[in-house]
Amino acid sequence: MTPRPGHMLLLLAVAAAATAAEPRLENEAAENTPENNVVSSRCNPPELSLAGNRVVSADFTVITEVHFWGAIGPLGDRKLCKIKCIDGGWFGPLCQVKDDGKFHPLLRNCHFKALPPQLLVTYQNVSIETDSKKVFPHGVEVMVRCREVGSYKLLGESVLECQNGVWSHPLPICIPTTTLTNFSDESPPTLMIKVPTGSSAVEPRGELAVFPGSIVHLECAFSRKLGNPEWTWTSKFREYMTGWAMSAEERDWKYRLSIYYSKPQDSGEFTCTTPIGTSNTIVINVKAIHCPLLEVIDPHVTARIEGSRMGHTASFQCPVGFFLNGTSNLTCEATGHWSSPPPKCLPVQCPSVNPVDPRLDVVNVNRSYGGRVTFSCPWGYKLTGPPNLDCLSNGRWSGKVPQCQPVHCPPPQPPPNGRILETGGQALSDGRYSVGSAVQFGCAESYQLMGEPTIVCTERGFWSHSPPFCKPRCSYPGDPVNGHIAPIKFYYEPGDHVKVTCNSGFVVRERTATSRPTCRPDGSWSEKIPTCVDYSEV
Ligand SMILES: *[C@@H]1O[C@H](CO)[C@@H](O)[C@H](O)[C@H]1NC(C)=O
Ligand SMILES: *[C@@H]1O[C@H](CO)[C@@H](O)[C@H](O)[C@H]1NC(C)=O
Ligand SMILES: *[C@@H]1O[C@H](CO)[C@@H](O)[C@H](O)[C@H]1NC(C)=O
Ligand SMILES: *[C@@H]1O[C@H](CO)[C@@H](O)[C@H](O)[C@H]1NC(C)=O
Ligand SMILES: *[C@@H]1O[C@H](CO)[C@@H](O)[C@H](O)[C@H]1NC(C)=O
């Protein structure tokens, strides 16, 4: 029974009013309106709100009592509450806190200030993890026991009732026993419970419920060299076998009492008293407690159910791709209830994908186990991670949601003896270029550009071509006067020669008659072009 949010709000209203012995619901309007003074026995609509809305809208000239459900107590039980119109004012709330059908004023709540870790509090057969914020309404009973029955001895009352903000008894204490104190003399003996056949469970008050027909060994831990302890019992039903354990590792410190094939008449107190006067007691209640048969409706659940007798356990598993919603292990408790409701197997679902980067495009989201989400980025951007994430069996995506990062090309390298003439796009401060930028190269004088003069930054972050290179060349040196050179080209490659032929009547100047100008690797001519002179001058 889960309280709806509305009831929680009502609980707030109730809890706020619950500190006074006869709490009165404030209603300022009632005191201020003149009509109210005339008809003093009527009340104005009560100022109770639920999620911002008025709880009741009715003709309050005739209504004298308002009933509503309040979520009362640490389990948030729905209890019928009411407020009452008396002499023009609302009084209450009064709630059916106990199960006697009567409305009781909500007196002060109780709580536990600091609960020692060994103490276990049970309220309405449900064990409660208490903190100082959990409040228990006036009039309810809680049961307190030591978590490890037999390892601690409870000193004090195990049933506490909340009486107008005060517990009926001081909080009991758990005294550690011999096995926890290294067999110190003052410690009561540890009582160990073994149930080799049958089943048992600890009750909210710390008593041991035993299923009829079980075999129970109670072992009193005491140092044998200090003497023999004594087992006593309150049941008049039969005598029990007692004595030191047989096995070598136990016979010096375990004094045992055995109950074979327990019957309801075996119920009672079993006390081990040591020769030095310390004692510890366990209360045994032999009763056939069954829990309701567990119905496993969910087809995905794999259940291993030991049985439905008190002390039996059931464990549950889910197949891959499903997660267990609830508790995997259940115990049939001495109260006849399973420790928790059977769990469900719910299909794994990965969280929805909320990209932080607005440029990221999320395509095809399948949040089921084995499903996939695919990402893409707009033109000029690339993903910072893989383009897919898979939904894993643990309900998580296989990685982080990527982002979109602008694509850049590395700084272009001008070739030796060349340079960048112009760029169609702005270089970044580190020299890189964004997608679509173009860079044009040129070569120094007497060099020829080979390859693509213009390169473009592509979407993949590479330039469209490798940069060109600059090849040295010699330019046409020009014909000498009265002669010509051969071969005639615009440009000559390194290693090319030219030969001068003079027009008729002219000869190459003798001094240079044998010269053959050669294009040098740096693009210059090895020598001047010979000149032609009138042969009469030779
Ligand atoms: C327990 O007591 C025995 C003797 O009484 C001593 O030898 C041993 O050291 C003690 N152990 C611890 C853990 O205190
Ligand atoms: C598990 O079940 C409870 C109700 O039993 C529900 O409130 C809770 O939201 C569920 N958890 C998930 C993750 O579905
Ligand atoms: C549930 O019980 C099984 C054995 O039945 C055990 O292996 C597992 O650890 C237990 N799980 C929890 C959460 O206690
Ligand atoms: C608690 O369990 C006992 C049986 O041990 C039963 O008699 C009682 O009615 C239960 N109380 C509640 C509130 O369930
Ligand atoms: C999601 O993925 C799962 C596992 O691959 C598949 O079985 C399911 O049909 C997918 N759902 C949709 C709506 O495509």
Task: Give a brief rundown of this model.
The chain is mainly β. The chain is built from 3 helices and 45 strands. Strand 7 (119-123) and strand 8 form a beta hairpin.
Write up this protein.
By secondary structure, the chain is mostly beta strands. The protein has seven domains: 5-105, no CATH class; 119-176, Complement Module, domain 1; 179-286, Immunoglobulins (Immunoglobulin-like); 302-347, Complement Module, domain 1 (Ribbon), CATH 2.10.70; 361-406, Complement Module, domain 1 (Ribbon); 408-472, Ribbon (Complement Module, domain 1), CATH 2.10.70.10; 474-537, Ribbon (Complement Module, domain 1). The chain contains three helices and 45 strands. The strands form 16 sheets. It has a five-stranded antiparallel β-sheet, with no helix packed on it. The radius of gyration is 49 Å and the shape is elongated. The chain binds 2-acetamido-2-deoxy-beta-D-glucopyranose (5 copies). Residues 325, 346 line the site of one 2-acetamido-2-deoxy-beta-D-glucopyranose.
Write the layout of secondary structure elements.
Elements: H1 5-17, H2 28-32, H3 34-38, E1 49-50, E2 53-54, E3 65-72, E4 77-86, E5 89-95, E6 104-105, E7 119-123, E8 126-128, E9 141-146, E10 152-155, E11 159-163, E12 166-167, E13 173-176, E14 190-197, E15 200-202, E16 208-210, E17 215-221, E18 230-233, E19 241-244, E20 254-259, E21 268-273, E22 279-286, E23 302-305, E24 313-317, E25 322-325, E26 329-331, E27 344-347, E28 361-363, E29 372-376, E30 381-383, E31 388-390, E32 404-406, E33 408-409, E34 418-424, E35 433-434, E36 438-443, E37 447-450, E38 454-456, E39 469-472, E40 474-475, E41 483-486, E42 491-492, E43 499-502, E44 506-508, E45 532-534
Parallel strand pairs: 16-22
Antiparallel strand pairs: 1-2, 3-4, 4-5, 5-6, 7-8, 7-9, 9-11, 10-13, 11-12, 14-17, 15-16, 17-20, 18-21, 19-20, 21-22, 23-24, 24-26, 25-27, 28-29, 29-31, 30-32, 33-35, 34-36, 36-38, 37-39, 40-42, 41-43, 44-45
Residues 366, 368, 370-371 line the site of one 2-acetamido-2-deoxy-beta-D-glucopyranose.
